[in-house]
Amino acid sequence: MSLFTAVSTTLSTLSPSGASTGASSGAPDEDYHWLLNTLATAAPGTIGVVIIMFNLIGNFGNFNVICATWRSKNLQSKHGWLLVILCSEHSLCLLFEFINVYFALSGVQITRRSCLLYLSPYIFINFLQSTTFIALAIDVLLSFTVASQYRNWQTTGYCSVMALSPCVLPIAFLTRLWSQVSDEIIFLCNPPLSMDAKAVNIWGGLITSINITILLIYGYVYFYSHQTKKRTSDSKMAEKIMRSLTILVMVFCFSWVTCMGMVFLVDYFTENPIIIMLVRSYAVSLHTSYNRALPKTRKIVCEIERLKEKEIVRWSAIVIFAAISYSQTFYVYYIRSEMYRKEFKKQMCCEKADAATGGSVIRIVSRSTNI
């Protein structure tokens, strides 16, 4: 309740100029106050519901991928274990989102230094989940281009190198963050707000660059697979590989790239710190809506600017685009992969993995890249 009381108090104690404006404008000014209070009232509950929903949906799916791979030898390929690593990272990211929920609902003040302490593991894992998408793309590319060597590589060592070699990037970035961290009160704890302005741009630029790299690699794999389809007898393998991974990357791009793109690009569209803060919290295109807004909406934004930063931030909803990316793997593979779908159904019906089928299961992919 302290959240709503603080907002109402701030609205009722605006400067005299603000009060005179309300007096002159009459009922419309009351509408602005109503909208602001509605936003303040709805945001905390919305934050909690969204994050709880995605944790249930996402962790259910991620657990099924991990468990199915552990139970079924049919899925224990290099590609399969990389998916396990990806799902583990995604589940950890989803759980870390509850930190933001706590501060959004409780209204507890927190310093940027304390927030960064809580979120440093999240920021680290966040980088790794993006680079794991690159690892999945490179894995498919290697299975095409150096098939004989690829089959002979030891799975544990291969997956460890692919998943952990990018660790130097988040370590360097976190070192930069801690060297510039302040004790400013931020009132809401999520990755963009735990960083200084320059660090946010660096973070957004790095993640966006990683995403572009993913698209380039998958684009090359896509065209290479079509060429291979014409020249070899591996057409079915190429088709099944790209059918699942293309959808996975499309959802990833829609969700995570949208989120990071808005965090990174908002500075280029507006210098208003309030709008920048809101965009980085919502990760939606507030700037576009603001520029196209009617005069009434512009007056609402002006009203928002008169509130203290702590009241604004408490309204801020959690970023949901990233949560979509964290939750997608199971559902994409259930829909697009016959092998994974069969194993998931066995698992959810409590059937024994592999034992029922023995050696009769025909692997779709002969290069240890099961799809």
Describe this structure in words.
Pfam families: 7TM_GPCR_Srsx. InterPro entries: 7TM_GPCR_Srsx, 7TM_GPCR_Srsx_nematod, GPCR_Rhodpsn. One of its GO terms (cellular component) is membrane. It is found in: Membrane. The chain crosses the membrane at residues 42-60, 81-103, 123-146, 158-178, 202-224, 245-266, 312-334. The chain is mostly helical and 371 residues long. The protein has one domain (2-352): Rhopdopsin 7-helix transmembrane proteins. The chain is 78% helix and 0% strand. It is built from 17 helices and no strands. It has helices spanning 2-12, 16-25, 27-71, 78-106, 112-145, 147-152, 155-164, 168-180, 197-231, 235-269, 273-282, 286-291, 295-305, 309-315, 321-327, 329-336, 338-348. Helix 3 (27-71) crosses helix 14, helix 5 (112-145) runs antiparallel to helix 8 (168-180) and helix 16 crosses helix 17. The longest helix has 45 residues, at 27-71. It is globular, with a radius of gyration of 24 Å. The model is unreliable at 1-26, 282-318 and 353-371 (pLDDT under 50).
CATH topology category name = Rhopdopsin 7-helix transmembrane proteins
Q: N-to-C terminal Cα separation, in Å?
A: 50 Å
Q: What does the largest sheet look like?
A: none
CATH architecture: Up-down Bundle
Percent helix among the residues? over 70%
**Helix/strand/pairing category:** mainly alpha
Poorly predicted tracts of residues: 1-26, 282-318, 353-371
Number of helices: 17
Cα gyration radius (Å): 24 Å
Give the CATH superfamily: Rhodopsin 7-helix transmembrane proteins
CATH top level label: Mainly Alpha
SSE string, helices as H and strands as E: HHHHHHHHHHHHHHHHH
Extended strand count = 0
The mean pLDDT is: 70
Judging from the principal axes of the Cα atoms, what is the shape?
Answer: globular
Please indicate the count of domains. Answer: 1
Strand content: under 5%
Protein name: G-protein coupled receptors family 1 profile domain-containing protein
Transmembrane segments: 42-60, 81-103, 123-146, 158-178, 202-224, 245-266, 312-334
GO molecular function: G protein-coupled receptor activity
InterPro entries: 7TM_GPCR_Srsx, 7TM_GPCR_Srsx_nematod, GPCR_Rhodpsn
